[in-house]
Amino acid sequence: MSNLITLNNGIASITENEWTVVKLPVSQVEERKQAGKVVLFKLTGEKTVSAEQIANTEIPSNGKIIVPLSVFIARKAELQGRMTTNEIGVWVDTHEILEDLVASVSDLNSLPIIAVHVERFADGRIFSLGTLLRSRYGFKNELRAIGDVLRDQLYFFKRSGFTSYLVRADRSATEALASLSDFTNPYQGAVDEPRPVFKRYNRIA
After folding, report:
1. Measured between alpha carbons, how far is 73 from 90 in angstroms, rounded to an integer?
2. What ranges in 75-148 are assigned the alpha helix state H?
3. What is the pTM of this model?
4. Is residue 132 part of a domain?
5. Do 2 and 172 meet the contact criterion of CB atoms below 8 Å apart?
6. Exposed, middle or buried, 148 (CB in 10 Å: 0-12/13-18/19+)?
7. CATH code at 118?
């Protein structure tokens, strides 16, 4: 069964996944430690992908694919023909810089899908990236959350502008789907509803 949840006109459902996420080859990266403890989160702007990984990334010759940002930038000429048929999307890690993505295309909305990959559930930068893509950069197409995507995050992904959620393979998409109804009237404004609650309802004196 599919683990992809998609929002369509505000209605969420489990749908078949048409997009294949292209992964980078595994690299042997030394663990970074601070005060003797392994640092779990990569620093924003940190360069973590080698030229060898980019060159050795296997890109399927057909079908809809979402490629890593570093591969998209370095091998854009190779992908250009398929971009015209809306077969190419891009995924970014939470530590990567959105300006690098924006600078790599003349129009961000020429990409049919952008995905943000969260390596660990506790990394809240994914919410900021979704908000920035929608509000600052005006991205209007499908925005997908991938990686360590769990039930408790989905409602807040929606608030941050994400319209699809690839739930972690070992979790139930059916259970996760229910989380989008956990709250009905949020107090704060966000991407999905910019007006705070006091602007949405008239107070009765």
Report:
1. 10
2. 76-83, 98-104, 125-135
3. 0.89
4. yes
5. no
6. middle
7. 3.20.20
